[in-house]
Design brief:
Length: 200
């Protein structure tokens, strides 16, 4: 299951019609000295716009798909985090879900209860600490994730088929570097305030 924007009913997608990639790529950065605009720092400003457009479109797809299955943003995010933890061999706890989704402990509990009631999550005792409960995604969660995202994955794989090995290798090498850059930015971002009983 792929990540979706963290929220419930407040979508983070752009409500405007999607813009062609070529249009975004060819857009000129704002000129220096124009009131209300600042000159982009460094190279690659056009790539930032392209990546933004990709993110908007993938988020819009995720919104459409998860609504078809009656899932909230936070449901999809929680399942994604739990599945990634399982793949790493590091199962998550409820507190981990709260921190990763940037929601309160009570909101995380509500999300976990909702997913467990639908058969997508199960709770397991931590053999190392009986006071802790580990979360595991069920086969139902995996099947739902495949059904939701297979159309998008198929389209992306079809695009990759038309690329040569050198182009694919660039993505394999560079995308993890971009991901690491975002993670560095997260570490210097001020912590979120106490969210209390925020919406899920």
């Amino acid at each position: 299951m792929l990540p979706a924007p963290p929220d419930y009913d407040r979508g983070m997608t752009d409500s405007r019609e999607p813009r062609p990639v070529a249009e975004v790529r060819d857009q000129e950065p704002p000129a220096a000295g124009v009131r209300g605009q600042r000159k982009p720092r460094g190279r690659g400003h056009d790539l930032m716009l392209i990546l933004q457009n990709f993110t908007i479109e993938s988020s819009r797809y995720a919104d459409t798909a998860r609504k078809a299955y009656g899932l909230a943003h936070s449901d999809v995010n929680a399942l994604t985090e739990v599945m990634q933890g399982q793949r790493r061999g590091a199962p998550l706890r409820a507190g981990d879900v709260a921190r990763r989704l940037v929601i309160s402990a009570s909101a995380a509990t509500a999300v976990i209860d909702r997913l467990a009631n639908r058969g997508h999550l199960e709770r397991q005792s931590d053999t190392g600490d009986r006071r802790e409960v580990l979360l595991g995604a069920t086969p139902s969660a995996a099947a739902t994730g495949r059904a939701m995202f297979t159309p998008m994955v198929d389209e992306l794989l079809r695009e990759f088929e038309s690329w040569d090995d050198a182009e694919l290798d660039v993505l394999r090498r560079r995308i993890p570097e971009l991901t690491a850059a975002i993670q560095r930015a997260q570490r210097v971002t001020p912590p979120a305030p106490d969210l209390g009983d925020d919406a899920t």
